[in-house]
Amino acid sequence: MKKMSFLLAAFLLMILAACGNGDGSGGTPNADGANTEDATDDGGSEGEDSAAGDDAEGTVSGSVGIDGSSTVFPIMEAVSEEFQKEFPEVQAPIGVSGTGGGFEKFIAGETDISNASRPISEEEVAALEEAGIEYTEFEIAYDGISVVVNSENDWVDQLTVEELQSMWLEEGGATTWADVREGWPAEPIQFYSPGTDSGTFDYWNEVILEEQQIRKDVVLSENDNTLVQGVVGNKNAVSYFGYAYYLENQDTLNIVPIVNEAGEAVEPNEDTIASGDYNPLSRPMFIYVNNASLAEKPQVYEYVMFALENAGTLSEEVGYVGSPQEVYDEAISTANEIAGQ
């Protein structure tokens, strides 16, 4: 009997060993009675599912509508190029309709972001209110509007605001360089200017022309490269545009120092623009963002955050001057608040 009992017990143990935990896993139950090996497997698959879910949630796609200033264009073009490396599923091309043209599209609800080389006007604010569009202004960088002449022009060493007025105003009277200053050649001046939809034109109109009528024989263009080529091709030409476009073409253009309010002839560069010594032609540049787009479109939120985080570096890479870091920090905080982050 003892022998048979022993054999029966051994037989039962063999059966239990073969069955394991009843599911063929052979694992060891944990304190909750769950199989630890199964728990590890389940945890691994759950982790993979979770990671896949995070990837799905983290994938940002769609488009960001951006238009506006040709002066701000080089900065935002650089932003879009770098942004797409991190967010390849997002399309963010930069339109160049000029500041005024960009605001028209912004007011019509056609864009999420409007690039501007001047502050928004009262009329544009009223139009946005009528359209029910709430927006936020973010300073993006600084520029120094650069007055340029042909590289063969060896007589213009500096210009005062009064001389610029005599050249550019309809009632200014100057048609040749000799009219501007005695001793300069009696050669007719060819004028090239940003178009009337340009924020650069608006700024020039305010601080140089003082809202008076610009002369009628000026060649106007929203394309700064057209202005560059106009001056390059004419020894007696003169124009003005953003500092970045001068830097890009400095081998073929001469830049003109402008006499500031302290009576000093100052050439625009990173230091004089940042310090404000290059006045009255130093100015901030902006992006205006549709608040609803910022709050409701993940791609717009990511783009704006990327722009604000990198604008200082990228603006200097393309020839402008970054704003103080505290300006960007405050802008980032504001953007997060609008987006509910």
Question: What can be said about this structure in brief?
Answer:
It is a lipid-anchor. The protein has helices at 2-19, 36-58, 73-86, 98-107, 122-131, 161-168, 177-180, 199-207, 224-232, 243-248, 270-275, 291-296, 298-317, 325-339, and strands at residues 62-63, 66-68, 90-91, 113-116, 135-144, 146-150, 190-194, 219-221, 237-241, 253-255, 258-259, 265-266, 282-290.
Description:
The protein is of the alpha/beta class and 341 residues long. The chain folds into 2 domains: 138 residues, D-Maltodextrin-Binding Protein, domain 2, CATH 3.40.190; 135 residues, 3-Layer(aba) Sandwich (D-Maltodextrin-Binding Protein, domain 2), CATH 3.40.190. The protein is built from 14 helices and 13 strands. Strands 8-7-9-6-10 form a 5-stranded mixed sheet. Strands 2-4-13-5 form a 4-stranded mixed sheet. A two-stranded parallel ribbon has the order 1-3. Strand 7, helix 8 and strand 8 form a beta-alpha-beta unit. The longest helix has 23 residues. It is elongated and about 65 Å long. It starts with a helix and ends with a helix. The N terminus is likely disordered.
